[in-house]
Structures are given as structure tokens and as C-alpha cells.
Design brief:
The chain is 42% helix and 12% strand. The strands form two sheets. It has a four-stranded parallel sheet with strand order 4-6-3-5. Strands 1-2 form a two-stranded parallel ribbon. The relative contact order is 0.12. It is of the alpha/beta class and 171 residues long. Strand 1, helix 2 and strand 2 form a beta-alpha-beta unit.
């Protein structure tokens, strides 16, 4: 999870009560130094933390195995929180009610779910891909606007040029 968050550009990780100790030697080793690249916070009350983040304009997106919008069809704003439940019980009821969006990973095979680390990686990748597409569309639209302005300017210059005679026209 820590390596995926680092690789895919997560701004921070918030661990709820009961999560693994991030300083456990196995966690430190498996993070491959990503532990030092992404700020990690532990909270004692997920509900309080999510309420505070929601009041600051963050979208709270909970991941669910069903009855949710496909992650592929979801637009994420700049400020969002991805809530992952534990593998045995999912997202707790007190946290689920705070989720302003329910998302799921559409799967083709017969497996009902993915492990949390894999699911988070898929979600973060899709968010990164979506933002890259939005940036590309924004760049494309800016290029189109600049080309239109250039064409309008060239037309205006040609139009103005027709009002002026060149010195060779007078001879």
C-alpha cells in the first residue's frame, strides 16, 4: 500500500485504529523506502478525521465490492480521500455513512474481490490516469484556442494589409 501510494502520487496516507504498525520491520522493508516519501498519519477516530476533511472540501470516496459507481466512470476532484476497508469486513458502518461517493472496481473474472493493496493500486492508478487525461484535454483545448487566436490574427493582418499599398504598387 505504501509503495503504491508513493508510486501513484498520493499526498498522504491516513491509517485508522487497528492498522499495522508502520515501523514493523517487515513493513519498513517492504515499503522499499517509500515510507519516507509519503506522509503517514495515524488517527484514533476515522469518523472525526473524515468529517474534518469533508468540511474542507474533500470528496470522501468509499470502495465497495458492489452497489457502487465503477471507478472507470468516476470523476475525482483535486481533493479526495479514498477509504479502503479491511479485507474481512470492509468499511465500517460509521465510516460508510460519511462516504460521499461509493466506487467499485469493475471485474471481468469470477473473483469477488481483490486484496486491499491491489484494490488501492487499481483505484489510485485510475485516478492518476483520469487526471492525466483531463490535463491532456486541457492542453489540447489550450492549443486549439491558441491556433484560433493565431488564425484570427493572421486574418486581421491580411485584412489590414489590403488597405495599404506596397511601394511597388505606386510605380
Amino acid at each position: 500500500i505504501i509503495r503504491s501510494c508513493d508510486a501513484l502520487g498520493a499526498d498522504a496516507i491516513i491509517l485508522s485504529k487497528g492498522c499495522v504498525d508502520i515501523f514493523n520491520p517487515k513493513v519498513v522493508r517492504s515499503s522499499m523506502a517509500s515510507l519516507f516519501n509519503v506522509p503517514i498519519f495515524s488517527d484514533s477516530s476515522s469518523a472525526d478525521t473524515l468529517t474534518r476533511l469533508s468540511s474542507k472540501g474533500f470528496l470522501i470516496a468509499g470502495t465497495f465490492p458492489r452497489d457502487a459507481e465503477s471507478i472507470c466512470n468516476t470523476d475525482f476532484p483535486q481533493k479526495n480521500v479514498i477509504v479502503m476497508g479491511n479485507e474481512a469486513n470492509g468499511i465500517s458502518d460509521d465510516v460508510e455513512v460519511l462516504c460521499t461517493k461509493r466506487v467499485t472496481i469493475s471485474m471481468k473474472g469470477k473473483s469477488e474481490s481483490l486484496n486491499v493493496a491491489t484494490a488501492l493500486t487499481v483505484v489510485l492508478y485510475e485516478i492518476m490516469r483520469n487526471k492525466s487525461l483531463q490535463e491532456a484535454v486541457g492542453d489540447y483545448n489550450a492549443t486549439i484556442r491558441n491556433n484560433r487566436r493565431r488564425e484570427e490574427l493572421n486574418f486581421a493582418i491580411r485584412d489590414l494589409a489590403s488597405y495599404f499599398r506596397s511601394p511597388s504598387d505606386e510605380m
